[in-house]
Structures are given as C-alpha cells and as structure tokens.
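## retry 2 of 3
previous attempt timed out at serialization; input unchanged, resubmitting
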Amino acid sequence: MSVKFGTSGLRGLSVDLLGEPSSLYSAAFCRHLEDTGQAEKGAPILVGQDFRDSSPAIAASCMGAIAASGFTPIDCGALPTPALAFFGQKKNAASIMITGSHIPADRNGIKFYRADGEITKDDEQAISAWAEKLKGTVDTGNAEGEDMSSEAQALFTARCTSILPEDALAGMKIGIYQHSTVARDLFIAVLEHYGADVVPLGFSETFIPVDTEAVSDETVDLLKGWAKEHGLDALISADGDADRPLVADETGTPLRGDLVGLMTANFLKAKVVVTPVTSNSGIEKNGDFEVVRTRVGSPFVIAGMMDALKSGKDGVMGFEANGGLLTASPFRPADDTIAPLPTRDCFLPILSALYLAAKDRRPMSELAKAYSLPVADADRIKDFSQERSGALMAYLRERDENLSAFLEPVGTVAHRSDIDGLRVTLEDGRIIHFRPSGNAPEMRCYVEAKDADAASRLLRQGLSLIEDFKAS
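## retry succeeded, writing output
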C-alpha cells in the first residue's frame, strides 16, 4: 500500500486511501487527541476537502470514523486548507483536510490539525502508532457531518479582507488562474474587495495538479499568453488546497515562492523570519529582521517560530521555499490586527506582493528585480532509490576528501551545512545542495548562482554527478 506520512501529511494513491486507510488514520487521530487530552468524546472535529474526484468519498470515510470514535464530525466542504485551520483555531477544534495539494489527480492525502494548528512530527508518530494498534478493528462506514462550510468560508474571508487598506489594489488588472484550486472563488471576491480589475482565467471542472514551487512549462506558457492577451499587471493562483501561492509578473513570469515570502516579511515589518535552508541565501541581506534556518517542511518552520516566541521575541513569521506563509505573532499591516495562523497560507503572501507593487506604482518585475537575489534553480532525479540516496549522502559526509573529490568537476568547497541534506557553498559563491526526498524515491538538487545561465549549468552538473554515483 502506498499510504504513508510525508512532509505534507498522509499521502498515497487515491485507491489506497479510500475505505479502511482513511477510516483507520482518522480513528487513530481521534484516539491520539483523546489520549493527549487535546479533545474529549463528543468534541467537534472539522473536515474539509479539495476538488479532487476522490476527496468527497475520503471525507465521508473520515467523518464516519470520527462519529464511530465518539466525536462530532463537522462538514466544512471544499475550502482552502488555511481557512479550515483558521476556523479550527476559532472553534478550538481539531480538523482534517482531504487534499493531495499539487500531486497528480490519481493521488490524494489527509492533513491533520490540532486546535492550535498543524500536528508535529511527534504527533505524526503517535498517530501512526495508534493506526498500527487499531488495524482491523475500525468501523469503515461513512457519515455526514453538520454543514458549517458557509461559516468557515465567511470567517476566512473576513481575515483576508482586513489585510490591506481599502481600495489598496485599485488600478491594477489582475488575472486569476482558477484551474481547480479551492481558492478560485475567494480570490475573485478578495481582489475585487480591494478594488482590482479581476480577469478570471482557466477554470476547470477536472482537477489540474498545479505545482507552484516547480511551475510547469505548460503553466508558464498559459500565464505568458494571458498576460499578453489581457494586458495584465500580475497573475495569481495557488495549488489544489491553496496553501501555496503562485504570483506572476506582468509578463506572466512566476516569482519564486521564497521571494514572495521575503516581500511579505518586509510588508509585515517582521522581526524574526523562520525559513528552511532551501530558501534563497539572499534573504538575510534583504530585510531588517533575524533569519532562522530550519530543515524542509512546515513542522520544522513552526517549531522554529515557537522557539522564537518562547525566547520572548515578537513579530515572528515564517515561510517555505514554495511561498507558503505562516505567522506566529499578530501583525497589524492595516487598520485591523491579523491573528496568528501557524499553517501555510497563500492569501497573505499574494496580497502582500500585489500591494507592494501597487503602492510603489511600478511593474511587478521591477519590484522583484530590486531585491537582487541570487538566481536559484532546482530539479530532481526520479526513481532514485532511498538506499542509493542514503549511500550517496553517507559517502559525502564520511570525509571532507570525499565531498571535495565529488564536487571537483564543478568547484572548490568553501563551506558546508548539514541542516537538511548537504548544502555546499563553493569558493566563487555558488551554492549546490543535495537532498534526498523524505517520502519518495527521488534525489533533489538545488543551486544558486549569479545569473540564470550559471544556475542552469550548475544544476545540470549536479544532477549528472548524482546520476553517475555508484555505491560501493
């Protein structure tokens, strides 16, 4: 069976999640909440979903397990993941989101949230342990929950329409690539609230797996075509469950997620920014804030934010390289205070980037260029076994001479970091980073260089080195 926890919850083939697995892990989640005192029998547990064909059936299984476990399932319908998490915070209720985010339509996933936000890695392990104990004993029937979808949507809409000043986007013509993201209708409502001229584009009844971190050539071609056809100032979109933003400039060229996160940090006047080691190395030079680097994955960003709060710091936020933005402190960018939302959100970073361009009255491309970040690129080698990637990483870490010899074709090692994978700064300032996937047979390579050609060349060299590695 393909189902297992990764960096974004429980994931697997849709056919493997349907039925017993979705019921089993939902029941395990309920037992974990009860066992840790986070919820008592009868308490509400919220359930949301994205627009995948398999999501309604999986949601029904989850609600059946919730009811059979003695809790009260609440049906929040199709809505953004951050909206579900925000509603859970207000209701002091745990929640379950049925979504595969940006992965192909034949796959799906389940994300679990405590009342105070995303589950931790310790929670993951405990839920998995309960699933093992409960295997073969769980009722696999379906159930319906009380419909609170309108209330959940309204609460999150109120949050999104309090971020910017009134008419903050007046005069901007913004395209929305709607595809099959659960944010598509809310995007229109929020941007029109701020006075933008909105152009809805690319609506799809069929699920389209848009990856906002590695935007496909096909998607870029669509964005560029729409930008030219409609004379747009910017385009926006999100992944399937709307926790990762996509912002493209007036030419249709997507901005990197970590750049959008950096823009948001400056917009919010953040004092502490927590971000994974894979985010651009130029972040430290582009803002008046402390930067804390973590391993890849929102649980690690959240842990870093909580550590900052415990040490007495305020103005704490975080973001991932994909642009998903989290806040641990309240912020007041306009007239209203924005409550903390320590889970990935696409709306705050999208609105921040659009506002900075509108306020300065300059093209989005010029705003992006002003940050002068190194050019970053990344790719992965698929069907690269975890045993092979483990052998490669062990070899590179074993001795400095091994790492130097391995990288000799591309440059001389100046500095290395082991925060997550192996990130190497070369003597000429270029960066190459090798990182095995945590939940797939893939080996990833990230690079930075002074220009696009140099970054592309270094990436090709890095991938070639990985492919040529022979474990002894």
